[in-house]
Amino acid sequence: MAEKMIERTITPLICSHLGRGRVIVLYGPRRVGKTTVVRQILAEIPAEDQLYLNCNESD
């Protein structure tokens, strides 16, 4: 069975702030969907226009 994605109201807001010279930081508690939101947004942006930094703390 395919898992239904929760519609995130933050995604359009993030997309509206994308542009040259802009940095967007998405942070929050673990397991709330940050990576999923970022992957959905990055799927719409050409690879040459992306810079993705994973800043998980090392244990």
Explain how this protein is built.
The structure is a single chain. By secondary structure, this protein is mainly α. The chain has a domain of 38 residues. The protein is globular and about 30 Å long. The termini are far apart. 0% of the residues are buried.
The tally of helices reads 2
Shape, principal axes of CA atoms: globular
| Main sheet attributes: strand count, strand direction, barrel closure | none
* Average pLDDT level: 84
Number of beta-strand segments? 0
Span of the ends, CA to CA: 35 Å
Structural class: mainly alpha
Order of helices and strands, N to C?
Answer: HH
Binned, the helix content reads 25-40%
Runs with pLDDT <50, length 5+? none
Give the radius of gyration: 13 Å
Sheet-strand content, in percent, reads: under 5%
What is this structure, in a nutshell?
With 59 residues, the protein is an all-alpha fold. It has two helices and no strands. The model has no long low-confidence stretch (mean pLDDT 84).
Helix and strand arrangement:
Layout: H1 10-16, H2 34-42
Keywords summarizing the entry:
27% helix; 59 residues; 2 helices; single chain; mainly alpha; globular
